[in-house]
Amino acid sequence: MNGGSLGLRTGSYGLLQNINGAIAGGGISKSLSNVRKSSTKMLSVIREKERPLPNAWYRYIGCRKFSMLLLIAFALLVFALGSFVVNKDSTSPNVLQRIGTLGIVPYVNGGHHEASQILGEKDKKKDENRFQIPAFKGASVLPFRHPCVNFTFPPPPPPTHRRLGPRPCPVCYLPVDQAIASMPSSSSASPVLHNLTYVLNENPIKSEPHGGSDFGGYPSLKQRNDSFDIKESMAVHCGFIKGSKPGHGTGFDFDESDLAELQQFHDIIVASAIFGKYDVIQQPQNISEEAKKNIPFYMFVDEETEAFMKNRSILSSSKRVGLWRIVVIHNVPYSDARRNGKVPKLLLHRIFPNVRYSIWIDGKLQLVVDPYQVLERFLWRQNANFAISRHYRRFDVFVEAEANKAAGKYDNSSIDEQVDFYKKEGLTPYSEAKLPITSDVPEGCVLIKEHIPITNLFTCLWFNEVDRFTSRDQLSFAIVRDKIMTKVDWSINMFLDCERRNFVIQSYHRDLLEQMPPPVPAVVRRPPALPNTRGKTPGKRIPRRGRDRRSGSSCHRKAAASNRDRNFF
C-alpha cells in the first residue's frame, strides 16, 4: 500500500454509510453515481471553507507527496523522542544498578563465583549515588557536573570469548589538570578522634603468651581493647616503640640524610618496598610532568636488597632508579621479609609525618596511571579518606583463612589460632546483614589514604594485629575496621579489584622470574622462492654443454628437492 492509497482512505471515511446503503438497495451503479455526486458536493464544501487560505497552501494539502512527507516527519519526531527517553535511562547515575555486579563479575573473572550471589545487590546500595557528584571538601574548583557522570561499563564478552582469571575493567579518570584542580585545599574532618599520639617505651616486656615484638612494644590485651574505644585524644601502640622519633634508634632505621628528607612536607607521595631481594623494581608509566615535579616516589629496601642492586649495577650513589628514590633500611625488626614490608605499608604516616596523601603499592606492582588521577577517582570523587580494593573472588575471612592454609601462605596452626581468637570476639561469616559493607577481605597490595587521625588510627591498629598474629593482613583487616565503625561514623571505600588492575600491573616475584625459561624465538616460515625467469624466453630452453650441463642438472635436482621439503613442512 502506497502513500496515495492512505490519502484516499482518509478522504473516504465519510462515504462508508452511503456505499453500504446503496449495496443494500440493489442499485450499485446508481449508488456509485450518487457517491460521485456527494463526493463532488463535499469537495466543493471543503474548497469553500479553505478559500481564506493561500492558494499554494491548500494546493499542497491535497498532494500525496506532501502527505507522505508529513507522515515521515511525524515518524522521525516519535523516533527522536523515543531515543531521548532511552538515552536518559542509559545515563542514569547508578551505573552498577543497571548492569549489577552479577554482570561485571563474569566480565572480570571469567565466570560466576561465590561472591556474585551477594555483590549484585550490595553494589546497588553502595553505589546508589555514586555519580551524584557532591562538592569536594575544600576543593578549589567545584564542578557542576562531573565529566564521568555518563561513564558505563562495556557489556561482558560472550561466554566463548571470556578469559579465565582476574583482569582489569575500564575506569573513567579525569584529565590530570582537572584532577589536580579537584584536590581539596584542606584536610577532611576526622570523626571523634582529633589528637592521636603514640606510645614510647625503651624497654618493652612481653607479658602475655600471644605474639608481638620489641618493635611493636607487646601491647597487652587490655591495651588492645582500649585502643578500640575511640575518644577525642588517644595514645596507642604503633610500632617504632623505642627511640625519640621513627627511624632513629627504633629499629627500621634510616640514614641521617634520608631521615631529614622524610620529614619534609608533601601533598602526595607514592611509596613501595622490596625486602629480601624479593621483587624487581617496576618503573611507573604514564606519569605527568606535574607529578614528576611535585610527587616523590620512595622505594624502601633492606641491606640485602641494596647489595643485590649494587652487584647488578642497578643502584648508584645517587640513590635513584628511574623515578624511585631508594631509601635503605637498617636494623630491620623481623626475620621475615614479608613482615618487614608491613612496616612502611601500614605505618607511612609515622615515616612521613608531614604528608597529606599517600599511595602505597606492593613491590611487584607497576603504577601505570598518574597519581593525581588515582586519588581523584578513588578518594576525592567519593569524599573518602581511605580506599582499598576488595578481593576479586573471596569476601569472607573464614574462606580466606582456608585458602591461605591450602596455599601454604603461613603456618596453619597460627592461622587457626588467629581466626579462633576473632571468632570469640564476635567475627561472623560475611552475609548481607553487613551491607553497605561490601567485603571482609581486601586485596591489600594497594592502599590509598589521606593522613588524618582516624585513618592513622586504623592503620596503627591493623599493624598491631599483624605484629601480634600472622603477617597475612587480609585476615585482620575486617576485625579492625568493624570495631572502629561501631564507634564512629566512618567507612572505607572498597572498590572493585578489576578497577585496581586498571591502574597497576602485577608482575611475578623475582625468584619466579628467574626460574622461568627464556622465551622461545618465533620461527618465521618463508614461502619457497619463485624461479627467476627474467631475461629468458618462455617455452624455449637454452642448451648447455659438457661440464656446465652436468653442474646445472645437479643444481636443478637439489633445488627441486629443497622445494619439495619446504612444501611438505
UniProtKB/TrEMBL annotation:
Stretches of the chain forming a coiled coil according to its record: none
Domain TOD1/MUCI70 glycosyltransferase-like: 196-509
Transmembrane annotation, as ranges: 66-86
NAD as UniProt keyword: no
Alphabetical UniProt keywords: Membrane, Transmembrane, Transmembrane helix
Location of region: Disordered: 520-569
Pfam family, one: TOD1_MUCI70
Biased composition (Basic residues): 537-548
InterPro entries per UniProt: TOD1_MUCI70, TOD1_MUCI70_glycTrfase_dom
Name of the protein described by the UniProt record: TOD1/MUCI70 glycosyltransferase-like domain-containing protein
